[in-house]
Amino acid sequence: MTTAKAKILLALVFIARGTSFLFSKTLMQDMTPLSILAVRFILAFLVLAVVFHKKLRACDKKSFTGGVILGALYTLCMVLEMYGLRLVDTGVAALIENMAIVLVPLYAAVLTRTLPKKKTMLCAALAVAGVGFLSLAQSSVRGGGVGILLTILAALTYGVCIMATESVSRDAEPVAIGIIQLGVMGVLSLLIALPVEGLHFPKTGQQWAMMLMLVLVCSCFGFAFQPVGQKYVPAETAAVFTAINPLAASVLGITVAGESISFSKGIGYVLILLALFLYNYHPRRP
Which residue positions in the chain have pLDDT lower than 50? Predict the structure, then answer.
């Protein structure tokens, strides 16, 4: 796979992931957060295990270990995301969580003991400024402060997840990693849900339709194919592509869920789009 195709794949992956915020928030009206995660990821694992059974049977120890590590990290990230999402708008939650845009180059700089590129830091600063504008209106809502704190913690974890994904997918089978990752996320969510909240299932056909969207589009495609794309691009590039995720979530929140749009939100969208454009713009040299 070429770098250009990998970037296209990552863009599609993060668009698919962005739709999950709306479906999850709607389902949380009748289901608990951990139940949604358990049902979603167990079903996604079963679907992918059937479709890619040959890759799963040929999975080596390195791919299995990588899937377990990513599954544990992403479980923590998703639990923080879901409980934060209950208290803030979908677009705001998605954008704050994607502070990973700035965290990944900072993590990389600490690990390699080097300074991030100037353009990377500029784009990261623009994206974080966009997150700040999108958080202004939400901070005055009841429980909004706690929701913002939880999504910031999710962002800190998400940055680690992106770095770990690049590391474990480099010399392993990325599809197998993605499948095992989903299985681990489903099992861990179930083990936490049973004593804490109990296990609840969708009750109506509409709720099952949304759950199937979470399973097939957001999980089977969105999670399982991120390691495939990240195998061919640096973690910093993947981090900037995460800006597509909250933009998709914000658009759906406004157009479908009727979430309000304000001047500060508009500024946030523009800043994040600008960050994405600048990072991926490479002028041709004569």
Answer: none
